[in-house]
Amino acid sequence: xxxxxxxxxxxxxISVFCSCAAGQKGEKQLPxxxxxxxxxxxxxxxxxxxxxxxxxxTSESERRAVSLLAIDKGAIYQGGSISSIDEIFGTxxxxxxxxxxxxxxxxxxxxxIGDTVEGLENSPxxxxxxxxxxxxxxxxxxxxxxxYLTNLNKGMSTIVDTKEHFSIAELERxxxxxxxxxxxxxxxxxxxxxxxxxxxxxxxxxxxxxxxHFASSLPSKRQVExxxxxxxxxxxxxxxxxxxxxxVGDVDKWFLAVQYDYNGDIQNYYLSxxxxxxxxx
Length: 281
Prior knowledge:
Order of helices and strands: HHHHHEEHEEEEHHHEEEE
Low-confidence stretches: 2-6, 11-25, 30-42, 119-128, 277-281
Structural class: alpha+beta
Number of helices: 9
Distance between the termini: 43 Å
Mean pLDDT: 80
Number of strands: 10
Shape: globular
Number of domains: 2
Strand order of the largest sheet: 2-1-3-4
């Protein structure tokens, strides 16, 4: 049984190279998004099964992959119970519900091996984390309000477990050949892991990879900053005022949210299929 779970995790993150330029030597390519026969047989997975997968994970990237799959398969969703988060990740947020006066709290699940598993977003423990993590906001009833993945710590990008770096040119080529939201999300994660999408980095890098035009429409000094949503299942970016709601099991709803200033420098970013509530920004 242990061997089965280890094999399944390996299938989640294994690099199976594919693209229209697959025959060209020396070109990096993203893993295929097509499910293997074993992945097809494993669908859908229960909360308990995701818990086993997560406990069997041995790296930051494996934990992140399990987290994404849990969201894609509907084990984690807006309006769901925070107890599902506790069961999957081994946290205890259900015992730390906010009061009616507080309305909501934000819990943090760290993916870096050896880091503290959990912490409330405003606690000293949570402020000390680095690398990728999942932030979950929940209310006094124990219902999930929003969630997102990021690698920001104290407003700065933190890279911990990256083994392979891609160039802007390679990511640009891969985006042009991508055909699914899952491929584009994977490409975006690789851009962050490669420190191309990074705090204080130029928004022009995102323009080049994803064929957007954010750098040509910078906020004014009076506006200071602007937030845009780059949906992976659509050709057109959205403003932060656009409504983005989760749809259980729908990978097409995922997006990259990016905040940049009047100098064209990236200040903040996160990935989700649920837009943060305005009060959380």
